[in-house]
Write a structure and sequence with these properties.
This protein has 421 residues and is of the alpha+beta class. The protein is built from 14 helices and 11 strands. It has helices at residues 7-10, 36-57, 67-72, 135-147, 161-171, 201-205, 207-212, 288-297, 302-310, 314-324, 329-333, 347-359, 363-374, 406-416, and strands spanning 15-18, 75-82, 92-101, 104-107, 113-116, 119-126, 155-157, 176-177, 183-186, 337-339, 396-398. Helix 13 (363-374) packs across helix 14. The termini are far apart. The structure holds acetyl coenzyme *A. Acetyl coenzyme *A binds next to strand 6, helix 4, strand 7 and helix 5.
Amino acid sequence: MEFPFDVDALLPERITVLDQHLRPPARRPGTTTPARVDLQQQIMTIVDELGKASAKAQHLPAPITSASRMQSNRHVMYILKDTSARMAGKGAIVGFLKVGYKKLFVLDDREAHNEVEPLCILDFYIHESLQRHGHGRELFQYMLQKERVEPHQLAIDRPSQKLLKFLNKHYSLETTVPQVNNFVIFEGFFAHQHRPPATSLRATRHSCAAAVDPMPAAPARKLPPKRAEGDIKPYSSSDREFLKVAVEPPWPLNRAPRRATPPAHPPPRSSSLGNSPERGPLRPFVPEQELLRSLRLCPPHPTARLLLATDPGGSPAQRRRTSRTPPGLVAQSCSYSRHGRLNSSSPNTGNQELKQGEQETENRSASEEQVLSQHGSRQEPMHTVPPQAQAPPAQSWTMGGDMFNARFIRNLQERRSTRPW
Ligand SMILES: CC(=O)SCCNC(=O)CCNC(=O)[C@H](O)C(C)(C)COP(=O)(O)OP(=O)(O)OC[C@H]1O[C@@H](n2cnc3c(N)ncnc32)[C@H](O)[C@@H]1OP(=O)(O)O
């Protein structure tokens, strides 16, 4: 992998170790020294390009290694340069290996949860033209020595088939200990460790055995005091988690309240404690006002459109049904309902109230409600929520019914002091 600058001068050693500072290594005596900021820029370019190449080789949608991710994490990158290409010009990069310590919850061979902080293989790439030439092994071996770990003590972040074969061939790592997260650990991971008292499900269940068993825990880092078993989640976030697309709940539940300013501290991306690998933080519950506005003003969910379009009898039938219903019940038939009566007034009473309410000062809200209640007589039904969301008929009050008019909303808001004006 070549670059438009002198890689050979930039990285004097065959293997360069970079940490989060991405500091350019000291140059060989006698070589001209460009401004330090330029050198760092070159280092960042190399890291970014290696990350992109690795992502492409692994068919990832986005790089998991980049200069900015390096700077925001305590990872270490081992970069191998091609010394044979030195004569040909500015040198070239062969590949890289990225490692880092991570707090993980791993299962041992008896399916007990263990909180550990092993050194993890996070990203590994050798240029396509140079694979199967022993470069991967050279880099890996160097890392093992530098980090002073044994291969079986490592956790591997979602290894590719090539990497599994590589580990099997060079380090005889074959039998994995099944996990519920994306990390792979091998037999021997828990060897020569000491089991703490009663920290795992298994240990709790088999307390007698736990008293004498060796403790499963990965190497190296001192961990905070063990938490109660209930606090331990059986998953740990992989560095690749951010690649997953979050699945949103359907409209209108996906409408989070507007924020005036972005949060001061976004959640950390690679910390594993307490994070589910499947989702980001859940959105706060939609406030009632926002929900009401959505119900009245937003277009239908695409699924509803699809159902209406594909069900030949469904859409007209639904419209026919709604057009025969008394004013106000249309919205009732397709809105959220809450069980238990809050207001004893009948739909008609509600309608009456609406008509009076329209004369009053709550123009905006009232006119919206008017649209809502008169909708039954319209040709094109109001777009609210999917037709399948039918409200229970009696014994429940509905947000879309006649009684749910301007006055009702105002009362509700005044009672809760949420009126925006
Ligand atoms: C946590 C992670 O990073 S997962 C992602 C790992 N990276 C990738 O999959 C990217 C593409 N692959 C690569 O970059 C490289 O193949 C690496 C990094 C996995 C291995 O580097 P190499 O320099 O090829 O390894 P090296 O030459 O030392 O060892 C070769 C052995 O690796 C394994 N291997 C390497 N390439 C392949 C391949 N295409 N198919 C199957 N096994 C392979 C084999 O065991 C091979 O031995 P063999 O040739 O006798 O079958």
